[in-house]
Amino acid sequence: MSRATRLCLIRHGETAWNAERRIQGQLDVPLSTTGLAQARAAARRLTGEPFAALYASDLVRALRTAQVLAEQRDAPIAPIRRETALRERHYGALQGLTYAEFEQQHPQAYARFLAREENFALPGGGESLRQFAERVNRRMDAIVAAHAGEPVLIVAHGGVLDILRRRACGRPLSAPRDFEIPNAGLNWLEAENGVWRLISWAERDHLAEARDELPG
């Protein structure tokens, strides 16, 4: 019998700040009307899929998406497990700026951000890519260990999903992103004995519209 943990990863539904290309980081921004509709569509798409547990970032946009997924299921999932370790990357002083404002106000930091320098901590107390990845992977290792052989639903953020897909594909943090991370898309990975594998990514046939405004 396989002891692999099957992971369904979902980026939260759209927010008004996603539409504005405004950096949310760890600020709490609610789902927009579009985002709620996307969460409901994802819930319908997952009808009949069994999950042993549901984990979600404790930021409201992810938590509300997870609540919709839980509420609309025929078969209940245990209570949502709120995870601070699955929050988006902390963007420090850049949180609340649009990407255009980030480039105008902090041009050197913006260039290093686009270059995906792994050890560059964002100004104003932000995380480096490496710090962010270590936080996410440490918690995900614990989740996988707790659910060997079980399917698990995870609702988090674009940055979190970026880290985990790179892990499954052996792609370095510094490499340009060549895959989509749409709001409320479905993404499937498997993990067993420290080995991660990509099953399917960016499934979006259930969505009328889905945004990926994240920089590469």
Q: What does this 3D model show about the protein?
A:
The protein is α/β, with parallel strands linked by helices and 216 residues long. It has a single domain, classed as 3-Layer(aba) Sandwich (Rossmann fold), CATH 3.40.50. Helix content is 35%, strand content 17%. The chain contains 7 helices and 6 strands; from the N terminus they run E-H-H-E-H-E-H-H-H-E-H-E-E. A 6-stranded mixed sheet has the order 3-2-4-1-5-6, with helices on both faces. Helix 2 (33-45) packs across helix 3 (60-71) and helix 4 (99-105) packs across helix 5 (107-114). It is globular, with a radius of gyration of 17 Å. 39% of the residues are buried. The mean pLDDT is 95.
Order of strands in the sheet with most strands? 3-2-4-1-5-6
Give the total of beta strands.
Answer: 6
Shape: globular
Taken in chain order, the helices and strands follow as: EHHEHEHHHEHEE
Compute the separation of the termini in Å.
39 Å
What class would the helix/strand composition place it in?
alpha/beta
Q: What is the CATH top level name? A: Alpha Beta
β-strand percent reads 15-25%
The largest pleated sheet is described as: 6 strands, mixed
Number of helices: 7
Unreliable runs: none
